Amino acid sequence: MIGPGTLITTVNHPLSPRGRRQHLGIMKPVTIGNDVWIGGNVTILPGVTIGNNVVVAAGAVITKDVPDNCVVGGVPAKVIQTIENDI
Asked: What is the pTM of this model?
């Protein structure tokens, strides 16, 4: 489930003036695992992998990979709690 207002970005741009002028995009895929709930107004940056059985709190900014079986939140997002895998 992905909440309203969520932004998943897969492209970024260089920071150098030359790179920006040349419109060089840096593309990195985003991978979202199984049984993931993403709250509203979450931002997921390029190159991030979100593991399985994860809950992302509303308004979080995901800048790094998220491990399996946890709740993450904040800006930047960090693990708030682990979730017991009940499978």
From this structure: 0.87
